[in-house]
Amino acid sequence: MLDNLTTRLAKVVKTLRGQARLTEDNIQDALREVRMALLEADVALPVVKDFIARVKEKAVGTEVISSLTPGQALVGVVHRELTDLMGGAHTGLNLATQPPAIILMAGLQGAGKTTTTGKLGKMLTERMKKKVLTVSTDIYRPAAIAQLQTVAQQAGIEFFPSTPDQKPVDIALAAVDYARRHYFDVLLVDTAGRLAIDQVMMEEIQALHATVKPIETLFVVDAMLGQDAVNTARAFNDALPLTGVVLTKLDGDARGGAALSVRHVTGKPLKFAGVGEKLAGLEEFHPERMASRILGMGDILSLVEDARRGVDEEKAKEFAQKLKSGKGFDLNDFKDQLGQMKKMGGLSSLLDKLPAQFAQAAGQLQGGVEDKAVRRIEGIINSMTPLERAKPELLKASRKRRIAAGAGVTVQEVNRLLSQFEQTQKMMKQFSKGGMQKMMRAMKG
Ligand code: GDP
Q: Which pLDDT value is given to residue 61?
């Protein structure tokens, strides 16, 4: 999605080359490209206008630091603004209530409500160890109730039966009662959708809402709908006090405009993203990661989250031991850490979680330059002998020249890495005194 935003930006990035600061003049073409790309991605016009104005305001006057090109600096600004537009930080589910925490699923037919109900049930059961019950109040669509039953079975959650001759509100009340008496933590209420916004449907879900008083009212919307998603979101947001949005079918060729507009229009956080038909295809929605995805920076963070479960516990312990024993942290460890992190799918993600000085050691992480920076650092470290890595103080001019030549970088770059490493080492020492646990937590997530 929005793939061509990256391509478009790359084109204008060239014209910005050599500028020391971003000005209204020199970013004009770039902004035009961003605007076009967003419109093509089906982002609503008012949202685009607002967005461009904000990017301009933030970008103009920005000094370009030496390690970034002006284009990258601008991409950095666009990235931050995209993140903000989608809500900034991730917002999770709110289950803090007298159980059962009731979650009402709202949305058009085909949006993915039933599927998402199953996905959420699975996530709540498996990851959060909740006891989950689900019920369908869809008495209109043939087989809707049976569909939820199948999904519930696959998700490993309990299903509360209902029949098409019952009234939705009665079904919901019976399910709440059952959930209470059987100590369920969460009750997921799947509702009927229509093909388009319709008054009767809205009144019904309003009645359901008033009856079960859910702590979460999630609006499920198909990302492929583009502009229509915005209108639907507006209608549901007007009719119901939504607490969050689930954007489904982000695995498809959705152009992503919905992700950008829905939050803007509803003011409600995007809480989850549906990324497949399978029940495992649900992710927490992280605005920053989505912004990276949109800009074609990949989604390293999500990758790492998956990979983190496979972190080499032994290595991590060994590393912790080393720090604790005060034996210090040398460039050999640094090399190991780089290898570990790379194995886990990306470096910047982990560095993000580590203290800032450490992150700096791997170069600036904005603008998709991280991989290149990491490769250069690796090149430098690989060109050292193990002894040099253990004792960087051995590195006098001639050795540095050899290393620089071996890594295809300048001596200055070698020096920069060494001084950053020194800072890191100092910081690590401090860490080993007090913050060890915090650090390990950060690394394991
Ligand atoms: P409902 O009418 O809102 O309950 O929608 P359903 O849950 O029945 O989903 C409609 C269709 O969308 C089904 O074929 C689902 O498999 C599919 N679907 C739902 N969520 C996703 C998703 O995140 N990705 C993909 N590719 N398909 C999805």
A: 78
192 among annotated binding-site residues: yes
pTM of the full structure: 0.67
Q: Partners of 217 in the beta sheet?
A: 104
Determine how many CB atoms are found less than 10 A away from the CB of residue 101. Answer: 22
Q: Rg of the Cα trace of the chain?
A: 26
Instruction: Give the count of beta carbons closer than 10 Å to the beta carbon of residue 312.
Output: 13
Determine which residue's CA is closest to atom 28 belonging to ligand 1. Answer: 277
Tell me the CA–centroid distance for residue 112 and ligand 1, in Å.
4
> Is 107 annotated among the ligand-binding residues?
yes
Instruction: Sort strands 216-222 and 282-284 into parallel, antiparallel or unpaired.
Output: unpaired
163 or 74, which is more confident = 163
* pLDDT interval class at 236 (50, 70, 90): very high
Q: What is the ipTM score, two decimals?
A: 0.99
Average pLDDT over residues 185-207: 91
424 is in an annotated binding site: no
**pLDDT score for 308:** 42
Ligand 1 pocket, residues with Cβ under 6 angstroms: 107, 109-115, 193, 248-249, 251-252, 274-277, 281
CB atoms within 10 A of CB 444: 12
Helix (H) or strand (E) holding 93: none
Domains located in the chain, CATH noted: 3-85 (1.20.120.140), 101-284 (3.40.50.300), 313-444 (1.10.260.30)
Residue 130 has pLDDT above 90, yes or no: yes
> Is residue 190 part of an annotated ligand binding site?
yes
In angstroms, rounded to a whole number, what is the distance separating the alpha carbons of residues 347 and 210?
48
Q: How high is the pLDDT of residue 345?
A: 44
Q: Which residue's alpha carbon is at the smallest distance from atom 26 of ligand 1? A: 276
Instruction: Kindly give the distance from the C-alpha atom of residue 120 to the centroid of ligand 1, in angstroms, as a whole number.
Output: 13
- Would you give the distance in Å from CA 391 to the centre of its chain? 39
Nearest residue by C-alpha to atom 19 in ligand 1: 112
Closest ligand 1 atom to residue 190 Cα is: 4
Residue 165 has a pLDDT of 95
